[in-house]
Input
Amino acid sequence: MKPTPISENIYCLSIHDRRTRLFEGLWPIEKEGITYNSYLIRDEKTVLIDLCKELFQQEYLGELKALVDPASIDYLVVNHMEPDHSGALRAFRELAPQAVILGTPKAVKMMDDFFGLKENIRAVSDGEELELGRHKLRFVSAPMVHWPETMVTYETVSQTLFSCDAFGGYGIPEKGIFDEEYPDLAYFEGESLRYYANIVAAFSKPVLNAGEKLAGVPLRMVAPSHGLVWRKDPGRIVDLYMRWSSYGKGPAEKGVTLLHGSMYGNTEKMVASVKNGLEAAGVPVDAHDVTTTPVSYILPSIWKNQGVVIGAPTYEGTLFPTMQLVLYMAEIKRAFNKQAIYFGSYGWGGGAVRFLKNQFEKMNWELGETLEFAGQAREENLKEAYEMGKRFGKLILEG
Ligand SMILES: Cc1cc2nc3c(=O)[nH]c(=O)nc-3n(C[C@H](O)[C@H](O)[C@H](O)COP(=O)(O)O)c2cc1C
Ligand SMILES: [Fe+2]
Ligand SMILES: [Fe+2]
Output
């Protein structure tokens, strides 16, 4: 995409990645795509902030050269060393050996570890400022959002926060880079939550710490390195991220994620009854078949809802493995402090509930009612399932 001016003498260079099938090799983005946003500030000193993934470095450097002679760039600010932003570092270094590369002390070590770069690199300290002429940058360390070396960069004149991964999201803003170009932001907010739940969620406490550090800093623009530039309402994405981070210690929203998976349809037959019961209680329900929905799309739902219903059979004396995987991902993303119920079919001895008890201890999830049945669900089981759903729905709403 052609560079877009976002403020006087500040440009966004946004690479539209429609080629990566799985972000981080894990998260499907084939439909949605992702952008890598880099920013250029022209002043008495010329500064570039973050780069892009190596796969796109030729396209990126071509755009950069059309805007500025790389040999005239004074500084490159590296907010984050994950290769989706730093991948073009070596190619950039060849074009701009004069540019001083700036990052936190931990980022400086990583520049050597990942790229063998040692020369003309300077570590910046938390709160350090850099005069560019009319503009001024302030570097604010934000460790563990979501790597140890991360920082954000604030420009004091335009009051822009270059936040890298923080406040980012999946999705390609085709019509333009700014929030104001989309009367309905639901799609981008949904993709920001999915990105949050996939990438950032495990580090909710550090996100809250970074938010506290930035409280009181006037923000006219939030310019992340994935997705939209928030110019009309920069507070909106900050508030959303802060709210999502608060769910890390709970409570989350009064809603229920209904997860189900089945081999031969016995457990599946119960799903509609449980769902009807939940809906009769008036609680919002978000249902996912774990055998067909990638976990990337399930995690945001678990993250934001206080209640989780697990419907899956016993398999080899334990819980149906696809469901185990979903719960394992929720555990490593630190989706803690939920309330859950269980239903499922077994053939002879069961075992799914034993797994859940053990797993929920690790996540501090409270296991409420469980409804197990041998073989197929009978009429009475379906009625019980409805009532159990209704009771759980009420419990979550009353929370
Ligand atoms: C590969 C496989 C392993 C199973 N392991 C167990 C088991 O260890 N204990 C048990 O009680 N039932 C076991 N079952 C039986 C299932 O729990 C039972 O068939 C159940 O009705 C399946 O529910 P579904 O139709 O929702 O997939 C197993 C079934 C399969 C196909
Ligand atoms: Fe990252
Ligand atoms: Fe990133």
Observations:
- The mean pLDDT is 97.
- Residues 262-268, 313-317, 345-351, 375 surround flavin mononucleotide (ligand 1) (CB under 6 Å).
- The longest helix spans residues 379-398.
- The CA atoms of residues 6 and 243 lie 27 Å apart.
